[in-house]
Amino acid sequence: MQMHEVQYDDAVPIDGYGPGFFRINGEVLRGAAIITATGARGWQGYDDVESIVALAGEVDFILMGTGGDMLPVDRAFRETVEAAGIGVEPMASPSACRTYNVLVSEGRRVAAVLLPV
After folding, report:
1. Between the CA atoms of 114, 41, 85 and 110, what dihedral angle is there, to the nearest 10 degrees?
2. pLDDT tens digits, one per residue of 94-113
3. Model's pTM, two decimal places?
4. What is the domain extent for residue 89?
C-alpha cells in the first residue's frame, strides 16, 4: 500500500482534539468551534445560529459534531440553517473532524461545527 501525505493547499486542517479542545492548524481552541477552509473560531452553541447562517454562500453543508457521541441536532437550529441553504450532517465530533479533513483536502465547500468531547 502506498501512503500519500495529504495536502491542504488552501484550507485549514483539524490537527487533533481532546477533552474540551480542538487543535486547528497548530493552535489550540478551547470549547465549541467553527472550522472552515479559511480559519477557526469559537462558537457559543446552538443559540449562536447566526454564526452558522453567515456561512451561506461560503459552504454547502456543515458537519455538526455533537460531542463524544452522535446526538440529534436541535430542531430549530437545523431548520434555520437549512432555510439558509446550508445542509446539516450530524455525527460525533471525532468523526466530524476526520470527515472534515478528507472533504476539505478535496476542495469541498464544508465547515465543521464542533461541540467538544
Report:
1. -70
2. 999 999 999 999 999 999 99
3. 0.91
4. 14-115
